[in-house]
Design brief:
Largest sheet: 6 strands, parallel
Helix content: 55-70%
Number of strands: 10
Shape: elongated
Number of domains: 3
CATH topology of the largest domain: Beta Polymerase, domain 2
Strand content: 5-15%
Number of helices: 15
CATH class of the largest domain: Alpha Beta
Radius of gyration: 32 Å
């Protein structure tokens, strides 16, 4: 049985292709059943905005290309030939390595982002519910989750901000040490504001206040974050009560002036205020940065920090790749040993059957035995059989563990042992 994976991702295919091939959550159970009906023993479908991948265990003449081609028949306008330039296929070791890298976000658009691990776990759970996960995929995916955890524990791959909104939160943490109990004012209600506010809430910011020229949009944002609306004309008077200000309005001129911030800082008795200006053109007057205890960062500042951190993550990723390689070798050895398990078990059963047969035939010649003598005889014969079996079983395990997964000698050895000891197929 062979492990294989086929798919497309953000590196190999444009979004127009990815969106045509993508599966909705409710489509996946039927697709999994269909793949199994076509001959796959086990199957998994991972479909996100950045990738669509099918992983399966297959036998005989069945190929992962054929399974993928069948899935394309359900997608009008797509064929395997049209998809082939964007298409990748991995088998055995390469498939394991790819799944480990995906789980660890080494294959993500933003290296180190945590979302893909959750998406892979969800795909695994969905496939398991459909009965599409067997011993091989269970072993590979369980190990993939552990590899991702090990990489996050042993490296700093996820510790630096690589998005503008998260970079803003990192800077806020540096200024305040902790965001627990901090109050946030959002001026404007754009997507960048939303993203930053989400990160701030996750970082335990206490209260969110929203102000916007259009009250309806402010109400929508307030309901989204459990926040409170401040009338736009009133926010200058409320600045003093805010620890963090996120400015992202569409105003063509500054909406947060030097005088506003100076008065707010004085009212705060020189407690620091953090202003994140993610508007273009800028919403916060540049001169505000000269006010003591006021810390202003604009879009360029945040972008530079995100890019610097992204470079750091790429360097850390090299450490993570080493961990992936170690884990691939370890899992391969386990899977190969598991493949030899039926032969080892058959060998043990054969030796035990011989022991019992011979012992039963000689018991009559020994006369009546006490329970202690009978127990000693059982222990003696079992000890002899175990010593005889130990050599060949150890050699099988050693040989299987040392051979590359594609080495034909592994199968030849198993076949020779089964023929030599006349072991029946299990």
């Amino acid at each position: 049985m062979k492990l294989a994976l086929a798919g497309i991702n953000h590196r190999t295919a444009p979004v127009q292709i990815r969106e045509q091939l993508a599966f909705r959550v409710e489509e996946i159970p039927t697709a999994l059943l269909d793949i199994q009906a076509r001959g796959a023993k086990e199957a998994l479908i991972l479909s996100t905005c950045n990738r669509v991948e099918v992983t399966a265990t297959i036998e005989g003449s069945l190929t992962i290309d054929r399974l993928f081609d069948h899935l394309l028949n359900e997608r009008p306008g797509l064929t395997l030939d049209a998809l082939r330039p964007h298409f990748y296929v991995f088998e055995e070791r390469e498939a394991i390595r790819h799944l480990f890298r995906v789980a660890s976000s080494l294959d993500s658009m933003i290296v180190g982002e945590p979302q893909i691990l959750g998406q892979l776990k969800q795909a695994y759970s969905q496939a398991k519910e459909q009965g599409a996960i067997g011993s091989v995929l269970d072993a590979v995916l369980t190990r993939a989750f552990n590899v991702a955890k090990r990489i996050r524990t042993e490296t700093e791959i996820g510790q630096s901000a690589v998005s503008v909104s998260y970079a803003a939160v990192e800077l806020a943490r540096e200024i305040f040490s902790s965001l627990n109990g901090k109050r946030v004012l959002i001026i404007g209600a754009g997507k960048m504001s939303e993203g930053t506010a989400r990160h701030l809430l996750r970082a335990c910011a206490s209260e969110i206040f929203i102000t916007n020229r259009t009250p309806q949009r402010a109400e929508e944002m307030a309901s989204l974050f459990g926040g409170q609306v401040i009338a736009y004309e009133q926010f200058p008077q409320r600045l003093a009560g805010m620890d963090i200000v996120i400015a992202s309005s569409g105003s063509p001129e500054c909406v947060v002036t030097t005088d506003m911030v100076r008065r707010a800082i004085e009212s705060r008795r020189n407690q620091p205020m953090f202003l994140i200006d993610i508007a273009v053109p800028r919403n916060v007057a540049p001169e505000v940065n000269g006010i003591e205890h006021a810390f202003v960062y604009d879009l360029d500042d945040l972008q530079r920090l995100a890019e610097r951190n992204l470079q750091t993550r790429q360097e850390v990723a090299e450490q993570a790749e080493t961990i992936v390689e170690e884990e691939v070798v370890r899992l391969e050895a386990k899977l190969r040993e598991r493949g030899a398990a039926p032969t080892i078990l058959s060998l043990q059963e054969q030796f035990e059957a011989i022991r019992r047969d011979v012992l039963d035939r000689y018991r009559g010649r020994l006369g009546a035995l006490t329970p202690a003598q009978d127990e000693a005889l059982e222990a003696l014969t079992k000890g002899i059989v175990n010593k005889i079996a130990h050599g060949p079983i150890s050699e099988i395990r050693k040989h299987v563990a040392e051979q590359p997964s594609e080495d034909a000698r592994e199968g030849e050895l198993i076949h020779a042992v089964r023929r030599m000891f006349r072991l029946r197929d299990r």
